Amino acid sequence: MKKRIVCFGDSNTWGYDALTDGRFPDDVRWTGRLRELLGNGYTVIEEGLCGRTSVFEDPLNEGMNGLTYLNPCLMSHSPIDYLIIMLGTNDCKERFAATPKNIADGMKRLVLKAKQTEAWRECPGILLVSPGPIEKACETSPVAGEMGISSEKSTKLAAEYRICAEQYGCDFLDAADFVTMNQIDYMHLDAESHNRLAEKLAEIIREKV
After folding, report:
1. What pLDDT does 1 receive?
2. Which of 73, 78, 84, 195 has the most crowded CB, counting CB atoms within 10 A?
3. d(C-alpha 21, C-alpha 124), whole Å
4. Helix ranges (DSSP H) in the chain
């Protein structure tokens, strides 16, 4: 049976393209590239939602709380072999008033819930990905009114996520080492970054799963 990989994230997993205000094609966004790179022995499942947070209820948008959706998501795709979680960008929005530590604590709750689900084929395998940092220019970009002051705290997520991964026995990747943001809203991956991220994730998955 094919190994089943669930990719749980936000608009950077959904594949938002700031240039077109649409979605990158299957063969461009990192989930699609990952599917191609891994080949026939794997099933890559996209679970990206624009605006998704780790644990926060968004007063302006319905259904954004990743914690409340995680268990039914994983159960619907069971049995699963590996879970990639890449969230935190939306948690940085000014309206949530969360510190980097708060955001990492939300990720801890996601990890604990994921480990406790009955969706695993065998032992839980989780990769916690710290998303590429929001650039300062985002705060004067077309999405400034949505995001608010958010860039500085996003740069501090990786250190907190690394602690979380070590504490709960997860794999860890700092996406900042592989990705760059587009030059329109400065918070979504450019096309080249989707490919670079997919290549690194494929390397990790082949080793772990």
Report:
1. 87
2. 84
3. 36
4. 11-14, 30-38, 66-76, 100-116, 144-147, 151-154, 157-168, 191-208
Strands 22-23 and 82-86: unpaired
Helix 100-116 to helix 66-76 angle, to the nearest 10 degrees?
30
- Give Cα separations from 52 to 88, 111, 113, 192, 206 (angstroms): 9, 16, 17, 23, 28
Q: Helix (H, G, I), strand (E, B), or coil: what is residue 22?
A: strand
Digit-coded pLDDT (tens) for 95-144:
999 999 999 999 999 999 999 999 999 999 999 999 999 999 999 999 99
Quick check: pTM over 0.85? yes
Mean pLDDT of the chain: 97
**CA–CA distance, 63 with 149 (Å, rounded to integer):** 23
d(CA 133, CA 155): 5
**Cα separations (Å) of 173 from 32, 48, 99?**
19, 18, 20
Q: Which residues contact 96 (CB under 8 A, 6 or more apart)?
A: 53, 56
DSSP 84: E
Token pair 């929001």 is found at 134
Q: Are 162 and 116 within 8 A, CB to CB? A: no
Give the number of other CB atoms < 10 A from CB of residue 107. 26
Give the pLDDT mean for 64-79.
98
